[in-house]
Amino acid sequence: MTIPLSAPSGLPETPARGAGAQPPPGPLRGITIPWSALPDASGLLDYLVRDDVLCWVRRDGGLVGFGEAARFSASGPGRFREAAAWWRSATAAARIENQVGGPGTGAVAFGSFAFSWTSRQESRLIVPSVLVGLDGGRGWLTYLSTDPDAELSAEAAEAVLAGWLDTASAGREADDGDALVPGHVSEQHYKRAVAAGVERIARGELSKLVLARDVVAELASPVATAQVLRELAVRYQDCWTYGVDGLIGSTPEMLIKVENKVARARVLAGTLDRANIRKQDGESDADYAQRVLAGSEKQQHEHQIAIDSLTAKLEPYTSAMTSHSEPFVLQLPNVWHLASDVSAELSAGSGQAPSSLELAEAVHPTAAVCGSPTEVAGALIRELEGMDRGRYAGPVGWTDADGNGEWGIALRGAVVEAPTRVRLYAGCGIVDASTPEAELAETWAKFRPMMEALGLHR
Fold first, then answer.
1. Is 15 a domain residue?
2. Which of 165, 180, 225, 453 is the most buried if burial means most Cβ atoms within 10 Å?
3. Which of 358, 351, 350, 417 is nearest to 388 (CA)?
4. Is the residue at 11 inside a domain?
């Protein structure tokens, strides 16, 4: 099978504006060893101690990285294709003693990609020098270097990790001087954009549009990124907490996961704020969510559009695919979502099965973060939204040398723009029954995870 790595359908094949054909790093050398020194109760949380940490953590599993053995960056419509080519070159030349094996071992790159091919912000892959992995009861430690003289042994890996952990970053307390201020998209601008989007949907130009806005946290003292990540990981254990080069958050949505030639995704569309519950007498929270969310024609319609978008993009790469016949209600601390899990067996055709990074390009952007049809919605976002999303709502996650990986959608998150400035993002799916006031309120519900982790209030 030939895996298309070109720009999304309908987009011009213009050269990337970023780094272009960056050479791979000097040959990566390394070692992966079993690692039993992980805490029993806190898992990887005790490794989230530095503000420059790389992480992808959920419950009792995930990856945490320190340092930088190699980096790639690009922008424009070729960003995925160029990143995949760079990673193939880097891993083909790598020489790694892997004593563990399996997804996430050996050479691993964390990555985050801009939502739009038009974004001026760079997408990136970062290969950490030291990586700690945990999958249930199985732990491992990887040490990588491009230094041809570096000692590669279990003792060297442990010593390098200890050096990173010895220089933990300081925490911070909320301060009266902390403030939440409007971003590029004000509340009034957002409501006007939603109204305009509903009008375009009513004309029949598209069936769904996702519009986002931003707010900015101006802090009285430098943000404690590691502390924020720990807060998110503890509060949102059903989500994937991510930290990649200043992009931080805890996403409930898995764009694509590839493990041993099987792809999985979690699609969310349809949201109910848990802060404004109006239950009937004797009704439990779960029954309320089922009635109001799963019983809503608007929410079911929005959700089905997102499912259809993903499965249509994934189908050419699969030999078999399954998904829930009915969405389930996913309960998070701040909201309920309608959710569906999709799994697919990947088809290798006459060559190799597609990697997680290649599939991330193939399925991004889904209707859950863009709209449907994708090309029409993408153009309308650029017309109505009024900001460059950057890496918000783009793929974030990791990939290994064997094509395994996990790529979430960078939601419920923020970008650390300066030591005391953090930009938060949130978006909502707009359909013909949407109202500006309700969608604005939903964005505040989606800002809540990051606001709470930063110690901020409206």
1. no
2. 453
3. 417
4. no
Residue 367 belongs to what domain range? Answer: 29-454
Q: What is the CATH number of the domain that holds 310?
A: 3.60.120.10
Tens-digit pLDDT profile for the chain (458 aa)? Answer: 222 222 332 222 233 334 444 666 779 999 999 998 776 657 799 999 999 999 999 987 999 999 999 999 999 999 999 999 999 999 999 999 999 999 999 999 999 999 999 999 999 999 999 999 999 888 999 999 999 999 999 999 999 999 999 999 999 999 999 999 999 999 999 999 999 999 999 999 999 999 999 999 999 999 999 999 999 999 999 899 999 999 999 999 899 999 988 888 888 777 777 777 777 777 888 888 888 887 788 888 878 888 888 888 888 888 877 776 678 888 888 778 888 888 888 887 656 778 999 999 999 998 889 999 999 999 999 999 999 999 999 999 999 999 999 999 999 999 999 999 999 999 999 999 899 999 999 999 999 999 999 999 88
